[in-house]
Amino acid sequence: MATTYSPEKAGSKELVPTTSLDDEKLGHSTDEVFIEGSEGVTQHDLDTLRHVADRLPVSAWLVAIVEFAERWTYYGTTNIFNNYIRAPLPKFSTTGAVVIAADRANGVAGALGKGQQISFAIRTFNSFWVYSTPWAGGILADTMWGRYKTIMIFSIVCLIGHIILVASASPASLENSDAALGLLALSIVIMGLGAGGIKANVSPMIAEQYTGKLRKVTLPSGETVIMSPAVTVQSIFLWFYAAINLGSCGAISASFLARDHGYWAAYLVPTCIFVAVPGVLLLGKNLYVKTPPRGSILLETMRVIGFALGARWSINPMKTIRAIRAPDFWDPAKPSNYEEGKRPAKITWDDEFVGEVSRTLNACTVFMFFPFYWLCYSQIDGNLGTVAAAMKLNGTPNDLIQNLNPISIIIMIPIFDYIIYPFLRKRGINFTPIKRIYAGFLVAGLAMLYAAVLQHFIFKESPCHDNEPSACVGADGNPWPANINVWVVSGPYILVGMSEIFASITSLEYAFTKAPARMKSVVMAFSQFQTALSSALNFALTAVNVEPRFAWLFGSFGVTAWIVGTIFFIVFRPLDRREIELNAIGKGERAGFVDEKPVESS
């Protein structure tokens, strides 16, 4: 049965079921096999009709508002950590603000005066911690509390951390920079725990708000199209990422607040905005689709892996790898592989669950290449801010430029969602997740090579050359920048933004669509943990994360992104051919869904 616009309800454009007349007009056979889980969609329909996104429910937009507020508070604080930790208090300042108006043209806000390497180390730890704690949030949501309750609890934890951060930046605290640093560290630990618990759950929760099926729809123009859940989820994550970056633009105000009014004011504004997170959650309590916890399945998952691997293990590593990659690798773990009465007592699952485990591991393996991508992204968090500090600011705070990254993403997302991706689909070009992620690696590498070339010219133009040009001062003690306008550094921020649309957004989409219903938060946590691993790699490079070596550092990251991205594409290209099959696994009743509709809905 197809779905079309009823002529009697043309004004409301309400979708109503009709007969299979569309199939007859298209010449379809009535005995064609329908796609499992769809509403009357055949393989012929899937291959020949244009795929479009469905409308997003109100509850999805409410979740996007939650993410917007949470990201405003995160980036509104972390984006100014670099100057807060690295630079000393400006002349006559007790708050970190640039007090002398005449100095504001090229002046830099600061507070603790601990230098570039300590600043880098603390910021790297913050990133590592924030992207490690999603494990706790994911496991608690999947096994005990559910996503809604978990987000609510961790939002309160995060709010406490923000209050401590404001206290660390008060004039009384800044009188003793070591005490202020201690309070900063405590706030980072508490905020990271709260933010991580939210991050593991908010992206699966927004996608769960859409419960539509694969179906045919006739548009007012007369064109029959496929209303595709996969395309809808792609669109959801594009707009979810837009909410993230719209929120991160809050750092624009933070840069000016820190420079003009001090860090306590810059941190107070995000703290007040964060109150919206539990507020919006309460507001939409009766609208959200809530997936209940389903109990721990990690032990059962390990047993499935053990059964499959035990029969294929060899002391020859190459033989083991070939066995793992074999099509029948999972057969020893499937109950159907054993004769009646001979099934091992430890096998308490069915074949569907084995498929879920296989699918989960496929998704997790894809994410293991991402630490090298996030190495490139991490440079826009602080190191490029230091690069900007060595250039002519002309009244622009050096840590303001990095907001070009979220601004460019906000501008580009509608272009991709409404123009580029539909254009490709209309012409039959299947820009699959693996291809999009590969494109993200390539663009991120290009951004780093741009940064390396720029740093080379800064060394050439700065009066201090490669001897920390960001700290270069004249005889009067005022900053003496290189004769390069600070907006030239916008290139890497914009390119990284484009790479995020390809790689980062697609990773969220991939984590949601490829994870079984009972393991979505845990798989999302694993996806985000790759950023923590990237931070660990970055931390190991602390000795070379110094300004005189920035050009080589950026260049190395760029080449690495290209090489690793190419290996990624070669290894995972076969998964693209199984896209529809992988998306269908784990959506039956055993996964906690009936007809793809969550068990519990409020």
TrEMBL record:
Keyword Transmembrane helix recorded: yes
Localization annotation: Membrane
UniProt GO MF annotations: dipeptide transmembrane transporter activity
Ranges annotated as spanning the membrane: 151-173, 179-198, 236-258, 264-284, 361-380, 400-424, 436-459, 486-510, 522-544, 550-572
GO CC terms of this entry: plasma membrane
Membrane topology: Multi-pass membrane protein
Stored InterPro entries: MFS_trans_sf (IPR036259), POT_fam (IPR000109), PTR2_symporter_CS (IPR018456)
Keywords of the record: Membrane, Transmembrane, Transmembrane helix, Transport
Main location: membrane
Location of region: Disordered: 1-22
Family listed: Belongs to the major facilitator superfamily. Proton-dependent oligopeptide transporter (POT/PTR) (TC 2.A.17) family.
Pfam families: PTR2
Protein name: Major facilitator superfamily (MFS) profile domain-containing protein
Keyword Lipid metabolism: no
